[in-house]
Amino acid sequence: MDRPSAVERSLREAAPHEIFDVVRSLIERRHHARAVELLMADYAMTRLQPVGVLPHTRPPVSVHDSAPGRAFGAQEAHCVSDGSGSTVTAHLPVSVRGDRLGVLSVTLEAGAGGPSADVLEELQECANALAHEVVVAERDTDLFLQARRAERLTLAAEMQWQLLPGRSCARPEYSLGAQLEPAYAIFGDSFDWSASADDLYLTVSNGMGEGIDAALLTNLAINALRNARRAGLDLVDQAYLADQAIHGQHQGSHYLSTLLLRFHLPTGAVEIIDAGSPRIWRLRAGVVEAIGLEAQMPLGMFDDTTYVPQHFQVEPGDRLLFISDGVYDALSPGGEKYSSRALAASISATRLLPAAQVPRAVLRELLGHRGSGPAVDDSLVMCLDWHGRPGPVQDASSPTRVI
């Protein structure tokens, strides 16, 4: 059995708020680094913010047009020499299982040809180890959560972000990315995912109401669904029990539009319950299509609702996008709704981006339509790239109806 590296051992022994200080000290000693900085992606995924004791930190940098942002977007090391050529800064992605957390920037004395491949590999191992420990440390310290904030979150947004599983993840069979807007003042839109050896469960919810009421409703629904899923119940029973929990609490006065999906990883067969849902778009072989489903009652609208699953098939190379009503209902300054044609064009224009970057890019197009005024509703975009599992595929599908 391989023993943990010195970096991993040191991180495990450190207090949660000290793990970055430990990594910085190790890198400075081993590589004689001039500076080591950790930048965390903010909630809107537009800025990378230095970790430190506020307000004594350096200014944030843009995700879109900076050297650290290039490493963050490409998810690979990016090295930049200073003007005099005396130092070089290596920017390394800090990510865990596809969830992009930030960037570790290390400034070294410049050598011939820049840092060697071995040095970059060691630094990337430090960044990877730090990423795992940041996820664990967030249970016990606010340091890294505070560093992600470009502005103060509303209480409803605080509740929603704590509910989410992450903003991206990846396995050999699939890649996922999701984003919510307005990031610092979201109400009730939400998403959830969980994977086992052979199944991926996804939930996409379009919240009802505003502020704390919307956040409380979504928290109730997501936790009811998780409770049922973790009890080993199938998709139909998950929907039924969440429906009963919401109706039992609100007697039909509040309800939640939700998509529930189960992807069978070996075959690409998809089971889905459309409970008054957000909508699904598919990009296959360059063609953008809306997937039509038979809508059923939202969770909690009526007592004792019976849900019936539907089925379709995903193929390697497929991209699915799940879009909440806040996207379709967004109004321009002139009062014009964001059209399905504009959304399809945005999906096509972002086809070369990885799944983790697509939601932010689509929402940026939406902001161009809506303008700078305050949003009247949440907007949620989730992107799933299906790669498929190597090996023979069983036919477990029924035809997809497309509108």
Automatic annotation (TrEMBL):
The keyword Oxidoreductase is annotated on this UniProt entry: no
UniProt keywords, alphabetically: Hydrolase
Gene3D superfamilies: PPM-type phosphatase domain
Pfam families given in the database record: SpoIIE
Domain PPM-type phosphatase: 173-386
Top-level division of the source organism's lineage: Bacteria
A molecular function GO annotation: phosphatase activity
Keyword Cell wall biogenesis/degradation part of the UniProt annotation: no
InterPro entries hit by this protein: Bact_Sigma-Reg (IPR052016), PPM-type-like_dom_sf (IPR036457), PPM-type_phosphatase-like_dom (IPR001932)
PANTHER family, alphabetized: STAGE II SPORULATION PROTEIN E, STAGE II SPORULATION PROTEIN E-RELATED
Protein name, per record: Phosphatase
Source organism of this protein record: Streptomyces uncialis
Species classification: Bacteria, Bacillati, Actinomycetota, Actinomycetes, Kitasatosporales
